[in-house]
Amino acid sequence: MPKKDRKRLQVVISDEQDALLTKTAYELSSPERLISKSEVVRLAIEKIARELGEGEQLDDYRALLEDESVKDE
Q: 53 to each of 11, 40, 47, how far by Cα in Å?
């Protein structure tokens, strides 16, 4: 079965954000299945989109985006 077509996105993240990704991937992993940092990012995108679609936490996400620690450089 052919792989799904996927788009690639490159972003610059801080060392702290990379550490959070690594920690999250480790915590979501099990002995049977290792979770990659890319899978964590995809999961986060889906979760945020779902919450925004339900009208939840919009102000919380906007506040996070205004925080200097998550802005593009």
A: 24, 20, 10
pLDDT digits (tens, 9 = 90+) for 2-26: 667 778 889 999 999 999 999 999 9
Residues 53, 56, 58, 64: is their CA dihedral positive or negative?
A: negative
**Dist. CA 73–CA 61, nearest whole Å:** 18
Q: Which stretches of the chain are assigned E, i.e. beta strand?
A: none
Give the whole-angstrom CA distance, residue 14 versus residue 68.
11
Contact 29, 35 (CB under 8 A): yes
13 contacts 21 by C-beta, under 8 angstroms: yes
Q: CB count, 10 Å around CB of 16?
A: 9
